Sequence to fold (464 residues):
Amino acid sequence: MRSGADRRELLLHRCTAGRHRSSTYFKVVRILAARGRMQVVATRVTAAESAKHPYRAIFHLDCFAKGYVMADLPTPGARSRELCGTMAVHHKLLQQSESYRQRSAMFENRALAYEGRMRAPMRTGPITIPVVVHIVHNPAFPAENISAAQVESQITVLNQDFRATNLDRVGVPTVWTDRIADCRIQFALATTDPDGNATDGITRTATAKTFFSAEADDVKATATGGADPWPSDEYLNLWVCADPQTAPGNSILGYAQFPGGPVDTDGVVIATTCFGTIGTATAPFHLGRTTTHEVGHWLSLRHIWGDDGSGCSGGDLVDDTPNQATQNFGKPQFPHLSCNNGPNGDMFMNYMDYTDDAAMFMFTTGQSLRMNACLDGPRASFLVAARAPAGDLRPAVSSMAAEATPGRGEAAAPRSVPSTNSSSSGGAGAVADLEGEVALLRSLLDEINGVLARAPHWSAPGTR
Ligand SMILES: [Zn+2]
Fold:
C-alpha cells in the first residue's frame, strides 16, 4: 500500500486533471466495491485540497489496478447545479397521491386568503418547533458522525434566520430592508422522545450506504439503511447524511417535503457537508443556510424564481418578492436584473434562491405570512406542542393563552402584539386540553371570518 503522502500527491494530480468529475467513476467504484476488488481508504486531506473536489470519491486510475481507491469527504462546491431536490419530490407526490394534491390545493386557498389579508395569523408571539436530528453515518467515514456541537450550530442559525437576528442581514439592499421579516418561528432540539424519555434531540444510525436517493427517500427508514422519523406532527425531522441525490450521481445539498405529504417521509434531508457551521460544513455552503432554505420549503415556501425554468411566468406565490427569471448562484452583485424587474432586480439575497450561504440573508414579510398560514393550517399541530422543550424557548403555549383572551378580534390581531412569557403553568395535561379546545375554536372562527370576508353581503341565517 502506498504511503499517505503518496496518496495525497496522487489525489492532487487527479484533481488537476479533473477526470474524477465524471459520474462514470462512481459506477466503477461501486462495481469494484461490490466485487471486493477495492479498498476504500478514508483519507482526510486538508480543507484547501478538499475544497477543490466536487465529489465524494476521489481516486486515481493507477489505484484501480492495485485495488486501492482513495476517498474523501464530499464537498458540494462544484456539484450539480440543481442544489435542492424539493420540487422533484413535490412533483412525484403530485403524481402519486390524490390526497396530497387535495391538501396542497386546500393549503393554497388558505395561503391566498392570508396574502389577501382576508385572514390573519392566529399566533402573535413566537412559536418553538421541537427538532430531532437523525445523523445517518457510514462508519467508513468517521467524520460523517457529526458532533452535537455541529448540530447545535445549525439550530443557532435557524433561530437567527427565522427571527431576523442574523448579523449579515445588514447586507440587504436598502430598497428591501423594510421587507425583512421576523417570522416568529424558533427551533429547539427536542428534550423528550416519542416514548416520553429524556433526549438530546439527536439520533445516530450507522449505515453501509454511501449515498441516498430523494426519489426513494431511503434515508428516512431504518429498513432502507436510514433512520425512522419521529411523529411528524410533533417534531421537525432533520436527516443528515453524506450524499443525497435526485438521480444516480446527481448530488444535491438537501431536500424537503412540503406540508400535506405522507407522514412517514415528512421532514428535511441535508448533506453532511452543508449542515451547521463547524465540523464537516464546507464552503460555500458552510453557514447553515441550506437548512434554512429547506425548512422554508417544509413550511411551504417555494423557490423565489418560481421553478419555471428561466421564464418569467412562474411565481413563488408570495406578493412581495420580485418576479425573477431563474436561480442565482454564487455571490451576485446588486442589482441583478431579469424579467423586467428593474431597477432593483432579483432578490438574490433571499434564502429561497440558490446563492452561496454567505450571500443570502432574508425572508420577506410575504414569505413569513405564507409560513404562518402553514402553521395555522397543515402544520397546526405545532401550535399545541405537547412536547415543546422546557425553558425560555417554549413560547407557543404562552402565546396561545394570550390569544385566547376574550374580546380580541381575529382580524385585528396582526403581528404587533408581543407575546407574554408566562413560563409558570400547572396541570400541564388540563392546560394542553384547554389549548386544544381553544385552537379548534379559533380555527373555526378563522374559517367563518374568511367566509364572511369573501361574501360581505350575506345575511345571517333566518333573517332573509
Ligand atoms: Zn429548494
